[in-house]
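User: Earlier you gave me the apo prediction for this protein. Now I'd like the version with zinc ion bound, so I can compare the two side by side. Same sequence as before, with the ligand SMILES added.
Assistant: Got it. Here's the input I'm using:
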Amino acid sequence: MRVKKRSKNRKAVKFYSTCFGFREPYKVLIDGTFVHHLLTQRLLPADDALRDLLSASRTPALFTSKCIVAELRRLGKSHAESFDSAQLLATTKCEHDKVVSAVNCVLSLIGDKNPEHFFVATQDADLREKLREIPGVPVIYGLKNSLFIEQPSVQQRKFAQLDEEKRLNMDISEYKKLMKAASEGKTTASENGSDGEQHERPISSLVKNALGVADKSKFKRNRAKGPNPLSCKKKKPKPQPSAIQNQGATADGEAKRKRVRKRKRSQKDNKQAEMAS
Ligand SMILES: [Zn+2]
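And here is the structure of the complex with zinc ion:
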């Protein structure tokens, strides 16, 4: 179970690195609810817990913002410990001269495209839902003493399939349209014809890998149809058995005849010798 969870988290991180250019050291934007969760569940030190979650080789950088810290202070005594801890984290610069709610601050920091490549860690269900509607925002949350990365939504995956140029030029309303189509389970291709080819194109192998979709053809092997001809000895042509016998017979016959001839010659010699003497 644990292994399965880990590999799911790993896949999610890989998806965002491949499709949205997230690079180590990862940046995690942490809101007050998450700081509170880390403290109450004793998931400390937090950077180790998050590094483990992200399967990162480098310690991720943790950020809050001025508005997030201010909200924790407003919550008073019950969140005093969280406020103290949040103050120790780095603050990313937000554009609010007058503090706004933590939710609005996070949303403004993420913007339309999450240019800073933040992972957002929050326990706020409403905020999580809003973040799901923005492409390229991985969300971290905790359940008791375990941390999770939300799996990329169907919309995020669809978005990642578009080519880079289209992605960069897409505004949030177009993205929402794409999202709506995805959640209704129909392809945008059927909805508007001109964009059809974009969506019908096969998923790039990179995305496939990121999603853990095995490319079947990649693993198909050509089966050998017989023994490897390079490791076999050359076949010798088999001589005909009858030929061997015949050859043997003729050889034998020849030898016999020679022997007879020899004998005859020696007899002749003997006779000649007798005659001479
Ligand atoms: Zn702010």
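For your comparison, keep in mind: Residues 186-218 have pLDDT under 50 and may be disordered.
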